[in-house]
Amino acid sequence: MRFTLKQQTVFEITIVLGVMLLVKDVSDRLALIGAGSIAMWCGIIVATLFMRKHNITWRQRGLALPENKRAWLKAFGYALVIIVASLVFMGGILPLITNALGLTIPESSTDRFEFFLGNVWLFLAYLVVVIWLGAALGEELLMRGFLLNSLLTLFGDNKAGIAAAITVHALIFGLLHISQGIPGIIGTGVVAVILGSVYLYTKRQLFPLILAHGLINSISLTAYFVTDGKLT
Q1: What is the residue-averaged pLDDT of the chain?
Q2: CB–CB of 44/146 below 8 Å?
Q3: Which residue, 52, 118, 121, 197, has most beta carbons within 10 Å?
Q4: Angle at 173 between CA 110 and CA 43, to 5 degrees
């Protein structure tokens, strides 16, 4: 029995996300540092195998450095747009929404960061390995490079299909941050919409997204570190 392209796409998305969730659960049970990043990269490995079957490379999905000075400037410009839009929503609009609805972020959501407080070298190592390689690079590869493109194959590369793909991928990305409560799901979901929109607008360039993602997370985590966990 041969699968249609859409059936195969659904199967591949299910397997990749399933592997990622399974590894995340096991890593959490073992109390491993960077459990989310470990799970993300396991998902990337499986996604890479599926992509090879279709003769698709990560470079075709946008994993490449800018080729010239103008391209570098544009990439930094796109990253700046993402950072500003994300910080405006997370720092200005989201608090208004959560306060109006009486929602709060669980204090336990930052417990996993307490181990590096007071240790600058441990903090820097976490910043490089987990934040930049795990979250910034890993999440952009899997969420935008694989998932969003797969959903576009499923829904169609037209206006309605693009809207559906961005919405569904943002919902999935938000739910992956369920440990941050409903505010975290809303916040990361909206950021995913911003990242996905810029990704498609730039004709599938991942570098600006990786740069912006890494800087946003670095800013928030540095604030947490320098205030000894008081500012999250």
Answers
A1: 93
A2: yes
A3: 197
A4: 95
Render pLDDT for 109-167 as a digit per residue (tens, 0 to 9). 677 888 899 899 999 999 999 999 999 999 999 999 999 999 999 999 899 999 999 99
CB atoms within 10 A of CB 96: 9
What letter represents residue 17's amino acid? Answer: L
Tokens of 85: 């839009």
Which of 60, 63, 64 lies closest to 52, judged by CA? 60
**Single-letter amino acid, residue 89:** F
- Structure confidence by residue, pLDDT tens digits, 175-232: 999 888 899 999 999 999 999 999 999 999 999 999 999 999 999 999 989 998 776 6
Q: What integer pLDDT is reported at residue 114 of this predicted model?
A: 87
The answer to whether the CB of 113 falls within 8 A of the CB of 221 is yes
User: Which residues, at least 6 apart from 5, have a Cβ–Cβ distance to it below 8 Å?
Assistant: 153
Domain ranges of the chain: 66-226
- Which residue, 197, 224, 190, is CA-closest to 86? 190
**Do residues 173 and 188 touch, judged by C-beta distance below 8 A?**
yes
Give tens-digit pLDDT for 207-218: 999 999 999 999
Q: Which residues have CB under 8 Å from 62's CB, separation 6+?
A: 144, 145, 199, 204, 205, 206, 207
State the DSSP H helix or E strand holding residue 37, giving kind and residue range, or none if neither. helix 35-53
Contact 39, 27 (CB under 8 A): yes
